[in-house]
Design a protein that fits this description.
The protein is α+β, with helices and mostly antiparallel strands and 335 residues long. It has four domains: 56 residues, Beta-grasp domain (Ubiquitin-like (UB roll), Roll), CATH 3.10.20; 55 residues, Phosphatidylinositol 3-kinase Catalytic Subunit, Chain A, domain 1 (Ubiquitin-like (UB roll), Roll); 72 residues, Resuscitation-promoting factor rpfb fold (Single Sheet), CATH 2.20.230; 112 residues, Beta Barrel (Barwin-like endoglucanases), CATH 2.40.40. Helices cover 16% and strands 45% of the residues. The protein contains five helices and 21 strands. The strands form five sheets. A six-stranded mixed β-barrel has the order 16-20-17-19-18-21. A four-stranded mixed sheet has the order 2-1-4-3. The longest helix is centred in the N-terminal third of the chain and has 26 residues. The protein is rod-shaped.
Length: 335
């Protein structure tokens, strides 16, 4: 007859051995893997067979754009490191539109490429294409285009003045007439997103040469009168001279007129009084008229305009005899 206590002991030992075997088998079949999810690291022991299964087992949620390495279908291996790169949002501004994408790429160039944004060589990208980003960001693409246009531009001539010690002061002589030139400009126009931002002349071509105007001006400021006197002057004018007297034929006034023989400035008309255009020679100016002598501008006349001067003579006969002449009129210096 069997000893019941012995049987119980055998059964207990067998059960223990089975449990130890099962535990050992379980421990042997388990795999230890490391899951790196951003800044979080998790060590997992699992009986699962694939990356996807262990992530599901640990309750780790994935988004479509997240990147898992090795891939979700990869079989688990002892000591395997599973790395999860989380996608982040990037706003892309280009071509007048805004795109928001989720991405795991960390270079601006790669992000734009994956977003289907093609770039032209001169386009501006901010941040630049080589920049690395790893958090929600903005990328701006400015389309840069260029156009070349042609414009004609006048070339202005210069006035070159030269002294001539053989000419009287106030006399100006044109030695060479001036004329403008013309040049063709090639201009590069730069646009950013269709808006003009810069113009730059990149080429010039002369179509017509310009020519400077050259004049000589006199420096002599004294002259010798018919009596041998040396007189200083400020300016000399070439004028048309006529003559008048106080009579009716010249002034329209008779001796019984209250203003007969009275000039515009109020002084009595006499030899040495001349009529001028005040816009050319101010009234009161001291003069020397070639062939007439010293004079003062004290009168005006309706026909005396511009470079004309009317010389007073005491008699109508003298005025008629004088006629019409070309004369030099010297504007005298004050001293």
């Amino acid at each position: 007859m069997y000893d019941k206590s012995a049987i119980h002991t055998i059964i207990a030992i067998s059960a223990t051995l089975f449990i130890l075997f099962a535990v050992s088998l379980f421990m042997w079949m388990q795999k230890q893997v490391i899951v790196v999810d951003g800044n979080n690291t998790l060590t997992v022991k699992t009986m699962k067979n694939s990356v996807a299964e262990v992530l599901e087992e640990t309750g780790i949620k994935l988004h479509d754009e997240d990147l898992v390495r090795p891939s979700l279908e990869s079989p688990l291996k002892e000591g395997m490191e599973i790395k999860i790169t989380r996608a982040f949002p990037v706003k892309i501004f280009a071509d007048g539109k805004q795109h928001t994408i989720m991405t795991v790429q960390n270079s601006v160039m790669a992000i734009l490429k994956n977003a289907g944004i093609a770039l032209n060589p001169k386009d501006k990208v901010t941040p630049d294409l080589n920049s690395i980003i790893d958090k929600p960001s903005e990328i701006r693409v400015v389309r840069v285009t260029e156009d070349f246009i042609k414009e004609n531009k006048r070339i202005y001539y210069h006035l070159i003045k030269k002294k001539n010690d053989q000419l009287e002061k106030g006399v100006v002589r044109v030695i060479q007439q001036g004329h403008e030139g013309l040049k063709e400009l090639t201009i590069k126009v730069t646009y950013e997103d269709g808006k003009e931002v810069n113009r730059e002349v990149v080429d010039e071509k002369i179509i017509k040469e310009h020519q400077d105007k050259i004049v000589e001006y006199g420096t002599i400021d004294t002259f010798i009168t018919s009596r041998g006197e040396e007189v200083r002057f400020k300016k000399v004018l070439n004028m048309i001279a006529t003559a008048y007297d106080a009579g009716y034929e010249s002034t329209g006034k008779t001796p019984d007129h209250p203003e007969y023989g009275i000039t515009y400035t109020g002084i009595t008309a006499q030899k040495g009084v001349v009529a001028v255009d005040p816009k050319v020679i101010p009234l009161g100016t001291r003069l020397y008229v070639e062939g007439y002598g010293f004079a003062v501008a004290a009168d005006i006349g309706s026909a005396i305009k511009g470079n004309r001067i009317d010389l007073y003579y005491d008699s109508h006969e003298e005025a008629i005899k004088y006629g019409r002449r070309k004369v030099k009129v010297y504007i005298l210096a004050n001293n």
